[in-house]
């Protein structure tokens, strides 16, 4: 009789445990990518529709398609952005409620402040606008910005005010503080708990920086098709890996991959100065992560804190960069918006709710438009904006 040697039991590695205060939303990096794609696709679609309607109406005043494309104005931008944001919110609702665990607003952290607390947050936003307005005098703020084209007449100014106070804050807070930040917080806290993952993050950042350089150097006619090809290739690889493992795509792979593609598209469109600043920040971040990867494995709480700090910074940078085109990529206004994003994201961290940040955002924009409304005599003398 032969006896087989005893089989050694397979010991699974202990799962990575997040610190008790970590964000843990039911949506993943894949859901975040879907929301982003819905927003971009909807923006292209509704912009084309609004462009056609304005071009063939009396509003265009005989402008050619080329002239209108150079200066589309609020009548094209505001309706298309509003409908694109609506499509984005619908996609968010569908992705969150499919899990059926909790109500949508409860899941995304929508908690209205009790009593008159909402007035305090509105006041904080107004105070932030006044404070940063004074501090911005020390920065090189251009006298004219690309967004000034939206304020050529009173009708456009009123449309922009309605959009900037009632629509944009809700959509942006839901996207950046409601959807993006929780995923980044969970992913980065997990990343910092494993030196191997930190090294992988460092490599991904270097890949992102290199890919951005390639896209920035190529002509637009080459960069966009190349970005589409890379996007499809990355999507196919992620899908193949998911089908092979019979599991949902991992955020550890999906987020860096989608970020690489997105940064490639952005790098081809922004100015050389803005690209240089962003690439420098990426290289500095890669160096920092490289240093962390050589350090001993930190405790869960310490790794969680570092991951959360980086999640706040990345969310704030993304919030500022999405406004880069309308600010002409000028670093002074972008720095101001980065500080605003830092305040809004920090408020989300402390309150664990998107509502306080939304109210601060509304108060901030309301103060800016209020000052503009008074300073231009009820939008009747908009030329004063550049004086």
Q: What is the radius of gyration?
A: 23 Å
How much of the polypeptide forms β-strand, as a percent range?
A: under 5%
How many β-strands, per DSSP? 0
Instruction: Measure the end-to-end span.
Output: 99 Å
**Quaternary structure of the protein:** single chain
How many helix segments? 13
- Broad structural category: mainly alpha
Helix content: over 70%
Main beta-sheet strand count, sense and barrel state:
none
Low-confidence stretches: 7-14
The best one-word shape is globular
Structural overview:
Helix 1 runs antiparallel to helix 3. The chain has 387 residues and is mainly α. It contains 13 helices and no strands. The model is unreliable at 7-14 (pLDDT under 50).
Concise synopsis of the structure shown:
By secondary structure, this protein is mostly helical. It has helices at residues 29-55, 65-70, 74-97, 104-107, 117-135, 154-192, 195-217, 220-245, 251-267, 272-293, 300-321, 331-351, 355-375.
Layout of helices and strands, plus pairs?
Layout: H1 29-55, H2 65-70, H3 74-97, H4 104-107, H5 117-135, H6 154-192, H7 195-217, H8 220-245, H9 251-267, H10 272-293, H11 300-321, H12 331-351, H13 355-375
Question: Which properties best describe this structure?
Answer:
mainly alpha
